[in-house]
Write a structure and sequence with these properties.
This protein has 26 residues and is mainly α. Helices cover 54% and strands 0% of the residues. It starts with 11 loop residues before the first helix and ends with a helix.
């Protein structure tokens, strides 16, 4: 998915949450 993103938590759920928030911000 996003490999060189500045935010990549170790937790899969946290990662998904970060991506989802980023999409919502668009």
């Amino acid at each position: 998915m996003i490999s060189n993103a500045p935010f990549m938590p170790s937790d899969p759920s946290e990662r998904f949450a970060m991506i989802f928030r980023a999409l919502q911000r668009s």
